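Study this protein:
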Amino acid sequence: MTPTDKKHLAVAGAFTSAFNRHDLDAVMACMTEDCTFMSPAGTDRDGARHIGAAAVRRAIAAVFSAYPDAHWSPIRELAADNSVVTEWTFSGTARDGSRTEVNGCDILTFVNGKIAVKNAFRKQRLTS
């Protein structure tokens, strides 16, 4: 593992911690000003694409609002080639009281030590 990989893993860890605290300022401090967030749900092949710090901030705030107790439990992280892949379990209770627990991962792309792209993927649980 390179020193750069170690730095990226540290930023990814701080990013996850900020998400779990629902600290938007700390989340955004880990990202570049021209960042992109590709969320899993949306009408595009990529889900939904949020471009620029203001749009990314709004999208993440919407997640925190939809799931007031949202939490991402890390499973593992891998770093290489200016990217970190984080595997996690998401759990949260929606405003209607329904509970979600699902596995997913993020591919984080770094530029100059900050996250430029957060590409999120998550499993889709079906009701039985």
In short: The chain has three helices and six strands. The helical segments are 3-21, 24-29, 53-66.
